[in-house]
Amino acid sequence: KQRLLLPVIKIVALIVHLDDFKERRMQIKLERAGFIFTPQEYYARAVVMSAGTLIIGGIISLAIMPSMSVVICILAVIVYFHFFGEVNDKLKEKDECIERELPKFVRAIVQGLKTEKDVIKLLENYGEIASKGLQYDIEVLILDLKSGNFENRVGNAYMSRLAKSLIAINRGDNQEASLNHLLSDMSLLSHETMCRELNKRPGRVKMMVIPIVVIGIFTLFYVVGVNLFDSLGGIM
Question: What is the pTM of this model?
Answer without folding.
Answer: 0.66
